[in-house]
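Figure caption, in words: inputs first, then the predicted bound structure.
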Amino acid sequence: MVVEMHAGLASDGGSKLKMLLTFVDALPTGNEEGIYYSIDLGGTNFRVLRVEVGAGSVIIGQMVEQQPIPDELTKGTTEDLFNFVALALKSFLEGENDLDGKRALGFTFSFPVRQTSVSTGSLIRWTKGFSIGDTVGKDVAQCLNEALANCGLNVRVTALVNDTVGTLALGHYYDEDTVAAIIIGSGTNACYIERTDAIIKCQGLLTNSGGMVVNMEWGNFWSSHLPRTPYDILLDEETHNRNDQGFEKMISGMYLGEIARLVLHRMALESDVFGDAADSLSNPFILSTPFLAAIREDDSPDLSEVRRILQEHLKIPDAPLKTRRLVVKVCDIVTRRAARLAAAGIAGILKKLGRDGSGVASSGRTRGQPRRTVVAIEGGLYQGYPVFREYLDEALVEILGEVARNVTLRVTEDGSGIGAALLAAVHSSNRQQQGGPI
Ligand code: BGC
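Bound structure (beta-D-glucopyranose present):
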């Protein structure tokens, strides 16, 4: 991971790790005041948020409206997607006075974007099952601005941010020792604060703080050291983005259930553990990750929840206890591998930052006493699946040893959206709020 991080910082295309510039060189300090808005697009759900903040890291109030993204919009046209987003914001604002007033808007767009400033950037490619051909290469902030103008709203994107960056912003707002953020939800990714002089591919990049948040896009990480199973290869073949997002396809919520399904399907073909009733196991994505989690977390002595899921969702009635145990085991292995890979990735970032206790930062400089390090983390898989969380935490301790005591993984709630609103505050045109050094 560290080698690839260096390669991605050295040149564009130098690594599968894109190490994208975010132009976020200042993070909220806690002194921001006012009302800010954000739109959060990119996971399973779509959110509109209104956040009121007061000095002293106080979130005075927040309003969140959430809805699932209709499946057809993820495969339709750019115009339809952004009109849907703009109209959702419009109906959200309709309840407010001064509908025409100017507002600062953070736009969380959780896909790889090549940014040209903090408020502009073009989509590199879709991930997580989205595939709208004509968006790639377009400035997504401009697409949203146009849709907002078309529906008569006087709101423009102030900050275009990846969900990891929003999460880092909220983490840092509460705790200045927060240096990185991880998302483990439908997709997975990480960002961290890098020194601008280490971003070799952008010579002469100056920021007031000397640092910039880098969006790693670690979902696309790959290394010849990573063992790939036949199931990973089969899964990749089923996806829209073949040969991409290899790390994500081993870790995130969009895929874990499907990996387990592929293993179970092969078992069904090569043995009689499921009897004649295993046809449904040949349906891609029939075993979703929430089911995989529920199977693994069933602690009833007769695995009754596993029986129910097999019966109702996979149409496998009467699987004997022995078979149900086997299914749990498969779900366990898939979960454990994912959690341990994510932990290894986090350890890699800490190593790059010289915070893994090896005493040497990857720049070669020896560091003193280990410092307290906070990593903000969120996403449905980490937050909603305790076994995954335990495996990840356990692996991090295993890798870091004693140093793990200085490292806190802090779960933020809605950080991707609230953090984007806070970044809109930091970067709003009147800039009363300057943000703080990073
Ligand atoms: C996207 C990232 C995003 C992550 C988590 C990945 O598929 O490429 O930009 O941060 O999912 O939502």
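The first helix runs from residue 2 to 10.
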